[in-house]
Amino acid sequence: MSNKTNIPDNKILGILENVSFPNYPAVGTVTAKVDTGAYSGSLHCSKVLEGIENGRKYIEFSPFDHPETTIRVYKFQVLKVTNSNGEQMRYFINTNITIRGDNYPIRMNLADRSAMKREMLIGRRFLRKHGFLVDVNKASA
User: Fold this and answer.
1) Who has greater pLDDT, 36 or 6?
2) Backbone phi, then psi, for 37, in 5-degree steps?
């Protein structure tokens, strides 16, 4: 602990953090924007397909628009979110992310973030749940 708040250094994030997805190793490492103004996390993909297999609904998507990587998820929700463009319906999935070598569960929505600088967003719900603080002066990624 090298900060004045007695908070472990691994619980203080910068505004950009390198993260990976242990459930989806083909995705690799991405740089996520840590955004205390956003409620939930968001993962970029521009196309989500719904299907049914053996009577079970699923969604398939290619994270970060990498067509060589297709992820099928059977547990998902479709919820209304409010953003700067108004209200939209989005798919939400539960998965895990690795930040600085530690794994954490996270709930994220799938959204077209192609107009954004970063393809992934970590929101305040995740930060609060896992006891993270954000130091805007810290350059982590």
Assistant:
1) 36
2) -85, -15
